[in-house]
Specification:
- 3 copies of one chain form a homotrimer.
- With 218 residues, chain A is α/β, with parallel strands linked by helices.
- Chain A has one domain (3-215): Alpha-Beta Complex (2-enoyl-CoA Hydratase, Chain A, domain 1), CATH 3.90.226.10.
- The first copy, chain A, is 48% helix and 17% strand.
- The first copy, chain A, has helices at residues 24-39, 61-66, 71-86, 103-109, 127-130, 136-145, 148-157, 163-168, 181-192, 198-207, 209-215; strands at 3-7, 10-14, 45-49, 54-56, 92-96, 99-101, 113-117, 123-124, 160-161, 174-176.
- In chain A, strands 1-2-3-5-7-10 form a 6-stranded mixed β-sheet, with helices on both faces.
- In chain A, helix 1 packs parallel to helix 3, helix 6 packs across helix 7 (148-157) and helix 6 (136-145) packs antiparallel against helix 11.
- The longest helix of chain A is centred in the N-terminal third of the chain and has 16 residues, at 24-39.
- The radius of gyration of chain A is 16 Å and the shape is globular.
- Chains A, B, C: Keywords: Lipid metabolism.
- Chains A, B, C: It comes from Actinoplanes siamensis.
- Chains A, B, C: InterPro entries: ClpP/crotonase-like_dom_sf, Enoyl-CoA_hydra/iso.
- Chains A, B, C: Pfam families: ECH_1.
Chain lengths: 218, 218, 218
Amino acid sequence: MPTLDRHDDVFVLNLGDTENRFHPDWLDAVGRALDQVEQADGPKALVTTATGKFFSNGLDLDWLGANGDRLPGYAATVQNLLARFLALAVPTVAALPGHTFAAGAMLALAHDFRVMRADRGFWCLPEVNIGIPFTPGMSALIQSRLTPQVAHEAMTTGRRYGGAEALRAGIVDHAVAEDAVDATATRIAATLAPNAGQTLGTIKSRMYAPVLAALRGK
Amino acid sequence: MPTLDRHDDVFVLNLGDTENRFHPDWLDAVGRALDQVEQADGPKALVTTATGKFFSNGLDLDWLGANGDRLPGYAATVQNLLARFLALAVPTVAALPGHTFAAGAMLALAHDFRVMRADRGFWCLPEVNIGIPFTPGMSALIQSRLTPQVAHEAMTTGRRYGGAEALRAGIVDHAVAEDAVDATATRIAATLAPNAGQTLGTIKSRMYAPVLAALRGK
Amino acid sequence: MPTLDRHDDVFVLNLGDTENRFHPDWLDAVGRALDQVEQADGPKALVTTATGKFFSNGLDLDWLGANGDRLPGYAATVQNLLARFLALAVPTVAALPGHTFAAGAMLALAHDFRVMRADRGFWCLPEVNIGIPFTPGMSALIQSRLTPQVAHEAMTTGRRYGGAEALRAGIVDHAVAEDAVDATATRIAATLAPNAGQTLGTIKSRMYAPVLAALRGK
């Protein structure tokens, strides 16, 4: 389950050491972590990371298979969480130690910046391959953070981008050695921590107003 | 006139061996080709190419000069065809063996990917030079597929991009030797053929919803 | 105060030799210069430059501090001027000899192209650092001219981009030696002068229709 720690101005949200799929309990825990980050005073920033070879593989398809009647509420919760990250009044950096797939890849894009392990692991939107189209909100999120060419290729082909490829495509901002992923993300976050506050929240909310409206179903 | 062939999973639409301007009969033939592609079962992809030194020079200005009263219907037909390519539930690759101008350049952009001859021929939007502004739908199409800087330069200056320049600008995805244009496009299309289907169509329709609405005059 | 000169087809608007902040009188003078450019016949283009180490530092915060009650009208005037540059039916090139900050950086983005001094001076949006969020119109302007990654970094971190960095980020189109800034901008402008006219104005107005509506408060 997700855990939250703080080191000086930097909160570190660890998504877990499994595939870190979006089980309802997992979503609750992440949401409570964001509550804590939002309530803290002073300079602050957030690094979201994970332990092992997955950042996150996205939706919990096993749970959904057993709880199909709860799909609408579940989808709304996921989209609201993505919106919350995207507009967070706190600088955010995703540290990607491994596979970052589907809604996990979208969660990474909802951060201000991304640091990915260079030598192993993929960032991938496999939706076209598994027959699940993006919701309008998810589509808007992805398209708002990538160049048109990269969004098109990622969304229509399911291409798997390794770290160096993801860097060249502008999907991530840094691709570094495995043992430097968290440190690089933390260093960036610490530098940006003084920017936390309502101005930052307003800037992000206005930049992504149409995306946020689509994610929130408005 | 346009012809359609099939090689395994890949349909090949040849736009002709002239300037391949959008005469009403030509538009009808292309539309019927898309009907055939859409009706086929199983994995499939589409390569659109041409014979000779033109991919297409766009609108048939000679025909329009003689049929000015039919402009509104003609423009709607052209825009609907661009919309149909853009949202096609089939992977599409444009093979550009030569000049790709004006609405011909837009038709290329409505494909998923583009392969251009490296050493000769230009991709160009000459509208500003000939005094014909882009319709809102055409403008939206171009802007949805290019970075802001490239869209601005292409649309406001009429710059002619050779293959290598078009590759650097992200207008095309590959620039290759003349005799490799069709083969490269076909190889990419064959790889993507398993993605054909309703999921792909929905993904594209949602990605480009505002563009499609503008092209369809809605 | 701003001055306007003409050299053959190229008008040169010099924003001044101070920080060139947007005082109401300065805004009036720039607006009158645009009137003159618009009224001229034949091929024409506009280079906007400045003398010394500032292109412009943006809003006149001293004046605003003493005239807080006039903020709404002042903000509308600034936004209308940005919209006017963005949609001008004349090719425009900004020559950046030095610091280009905040609304000055937005003014530069409202030109068709930008030439920046390579070795000194910064292009910067410090709004997040000084606690002033972008208006929706300003946000839309910046986002319409930069890639998503660059817009996000520039707007959420206040990063200062030197000439070479601004070139790599696509914020400017050329970074050259100090004594080549004006000459490069003038050369580009002269080349584009034949494109001046209503077609160009319509092309830009349609490309940036949502941005213009947001800047004009509609």
